Amino acid sequence: MPSVFEATAGAALGVGTDQTGSVTQATSKATGVTLNKAAGVITMDDADLATATEVSFTVTNSEITASDAVLVNHASAGTAGAYMVQANTIAAGSFAITVTNLTGGTLGEAIVLNYQIFKAG
């Protein structure tokens, strides 16, 4: 069975374009999203996030199982270094992302997150 990963000399390691997608949160930073792809881009809502506050939202995703790992990062938009981003609560069919405002002030930015699922086994 061929791998969904591509490796080419001089190219980045990752999934094929047919396994990626994007989605935008609809109404708040806590609003869940659905993206049934192994990797993707999530544009968060621009609602305010107070200093030292965290918010979590659910990513519904048919590609993930409870034993998989998720890598997520703050990719663009907003203040670089102002947020801590982590994936958690990984289960069959969904995972959560928690974003924390690390600054001394309120931020109202529509930050862009990248994620990738790494299959177990």
Major beta sheet summary: 4 strands, mixed
- Give helix % range: under 10%
Number of domains: 1
What is the arithmetic mean of pLDDT?
88
Which descriptors would you attach to this protein?
0% helix; mainly beta; Immunoglobulin-like; 4-stranded mixed β-sheet; 121 residues
Overall description:
- It is built from no helices and ten strands.
- It has strands at residues 5-6, 14-15, 20-24, 33-34, 39-43, 54-60, 69-76, 83-91, 94-101, 112-118.
- Strands 3-5-10-7 form a four-stranded mixed β-sheet, with no helix packed on it. Strands 4-6-9-8 form a four-stranded mixed β-sheet, with no helix packed on it. A two-stranded antiparallel sheet has the order 1-2.
- A hairpin with a 2-residue loop joins strand 8 (83-91) and strand 9 (94-101).
- The two termini are 14 Å apart.
- The mean pLDDT is 88.
Which secondary structure elements does this structure contain, and how are they paired or packed?
Blueprint: E1 5-6, E2 14-15, E3 20-24, E4 33-34, E5 39-43, E6 54-60, E7 69-76, E8 83-91, E9 94-101, E10 112-118
Parallel strand pairs: 3-5, 4-6
Antiparallel strand pairs: 1-2, 5-10, 6-9, 7-10, 8-9
Q: Quick gist of this model?
A:
The protein has no helices and ten strands.
